[in-house]
């Protein structure tokens, strides 16, 4: 008599994946409840090693601290990006869009799901799309104009 057992390996792998994903997402309260339950149901002839319990609780503290640090660093990076981009307000930028290179004056900065964006002529332009930065001549408005040709810069020396 022959039996097919092909599906067993796949279901076992799926169970392992969901179990490890579930343990990684435990909150502090869930972890402590699990630890208390483990202590209540331990074998009296073979109790949990105290050093193992301390190790588990210190691991929880480390994970919580790393999570807090990660959140703070993410907020700092976002703030730093906006602060850096704010120096572009009032300046002319050339950026890539679907139709080619476009130049315009930056009137504001903001944050989107994809990162820092500049407000250029009413358009939200991701800062990663900016290819050149320069001052807008007084009295001129380059917003929305198409940039063609090349840009030349000169450097003077003080003697």
Automatic annotation (TrEMBL):
InterPro entries: FlgD. This is Flagellar hook capping protein. GO terms for biological process: bacterial-type flagellum organization. It comes from the Bacteria. Keywords: Bacterial flagellum biogenesis, Cell projection, Cilium, Flagellum. Pfam families: FlgD. Belongs to the FlgD family. Residues 139-159 are annotated as: Disordered. The lineage of its organism: Bacteria, Bacillati, Actinomycetota, Acidimicrobiia, Acidimicrobiales.
